[in-house]
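Table S2 (continued). Query chain:
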Amino acid sequence: MALKRMDNVGIVVDDLAATIEFFRELGLELEGQATIEGDWAERVTGLRDMRVEMAMMRTPDGHSRLEISRFLTPLAVADHRNAPVNALGYLRVMFAVLLIGLAQELG
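Corresponding output:
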């Protein structure tokens, strides 16, 4: 079995609208937004009384997606922004970007 592509990376945020705008500025396209809740979602995540706002964004080449979640219930249990770099969990998601204004200035 060989890897064909990366389909999805998921992140949890505290401000969904600002995060969507940030990734739009980088060139990702919003595919859709939804509120997810109910028995199926609770079975999949293992969280009871789960309600989450979610947005799916697509990279410009259409090959990868970024799933952004904001939990309404239960609330996020930890904030890893101040965790040391050797903490378990996602450390970073990286994109190659072209800064148009800077590129024009540099010629």
